[in-house]
């Protein structure tokens, strides 16, 4: 079953065509990762799937409905998006930020409710941000700040989460922390997660479904074991590599070719063997 489907989707900024007649299907209840070289349109595609960018042509279907014909609050109750490097108003606390996730449910007829309070509480607990709820967001570390924003999207209580490079600017520890959190949300709560990642190996480790973009279209989409090959990496990223099995996870692991100390040592060892 598919949550999001794009048919013959073309996206542009002015006359600059970014995505051209693209077809994509996002499986329901799975983790999908968009990969591709810089400027290939990953973030643009994600914004369009969230209805933040109007297509030049084509259609996007969310839960069997044309997303362009849905009300904004109806979309926001089904799908939440976390943009890349979101900016927090100065002085805003974690609790105040997370409460903003309940905006789609507010109206003149329906003010703040017990259900809103419970959703915020659940989001704070799921992201381990309860003890930090009274801290200002701009005083937090990078990993904590990302968790606060993810808590806000969780408070929206949607079945689908879209995240644009959620690990950008984070060190290795915080990258794994955020990805583990998203993995748990998928496994324990069945959330459909679509995110953009630059690290192919992390994409393979966490994704059920990978979509590789190249030349304004989908180059390949499917399970990591099916599409992550040396040829795919060469074609999509213009990089030679070896693809082996990750010894810990059994997923594809990309080992890029290039210069480095190991190459120098190997050359020295070879020269020593020849001379002897």
Which helices and strands occur, and which strands form pairs?
Layout: E1 2-13, E2 16-27, E3 31-35, H1 42-49, E4 57-62, E5 65-66, H2 72-76, E6 79-82, H3 94-99, H4 114-126, H5 142-155, E7 160-164, H6 172-189, E8 192-196, H7 200-206, E9 209-214, E10 217-222, H8 224-227, H9 230-237, E11 241-245, E12 252-256, H10 261-275
Parallel strand pairs: 3-8, 3-9, 6-7, 7-8
Antiparallel strand pairs: 1-2, 1-4, 4-5, 9-10, 11-12
GO molecular function, one term: ATP binding
Pfam families: ABC_tran (PF00005)
Membrane topology: Peripheral membrane protein
Helix segment count?
10
Total DSSP E strands? 12
Report the structural category: alpha/beta
| Overall pLDDT | 91
In percent, how much strand structure appears in the residues? 25-35%
Pfam family, one: ABC_tran
Domain ABC transporter: 4-240
Keywords: ATP-binding, Cell membrane, Ion transport, Iron, Iron transport, Membrane, Nucleotide-binding, Transport
Subcellular location: Cell membrane
């Amino acid at each position: 079953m598919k949550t999001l489907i794009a048919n013959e989707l073309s996206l542009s900024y002015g006359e600059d065509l970014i995505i051209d007649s693209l077809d994509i299907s996002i499986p329901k209840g799975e983790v999908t990762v968009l990969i591709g070289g810089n400027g290939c349109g990953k973030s643009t595609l994600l914004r369009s799937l969230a209805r933040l960018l109007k297509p030049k042509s084509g259609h996007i279907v969310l839960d069997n409905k044309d997303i362009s014909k849905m009300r904004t609050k109806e979309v926001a109750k089904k799908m939440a998006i976390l943009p890349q490097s979101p900016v927090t108003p100065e002085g805003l606390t974690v609790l105040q930020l997370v409460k903003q996730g309940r905006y789609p449910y507010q109206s003149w007829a329906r003010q703040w409710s017990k259900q809103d309070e419970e959703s915020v509480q659940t989001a704070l607990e799921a992201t381990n941000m309860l003890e930090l709820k009274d801290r200002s967001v701009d005083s937090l570390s990078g990993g904590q700040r990302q968790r606060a924003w993810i808590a806000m999207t969780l408070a929206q209580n949607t079945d689908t989460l879209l995240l644009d490079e959620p690990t950008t600017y984070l060190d290795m520890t915080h990258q794994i922390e955020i990805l583990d959190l998203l993995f748990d949300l998928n496994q324990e709560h069945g959330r459909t997660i679509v995110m953009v990642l630059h690290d192919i190996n992390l994409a393979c480790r966490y994704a059920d479904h990978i979509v590789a973009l190249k030349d304004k279209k989908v180059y390949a989409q499917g399970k990591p074991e099916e599409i992550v090959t040396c040829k795919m990496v060469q074609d999509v990223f213009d990089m030679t590599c070896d693809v082996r099995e990750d010894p810990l996870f059994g997923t594809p692991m990309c080992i890029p070719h290039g210069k480095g100390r190991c190459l120098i040592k190997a050359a020295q060892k070879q020269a020593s063997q020849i001379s002897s």
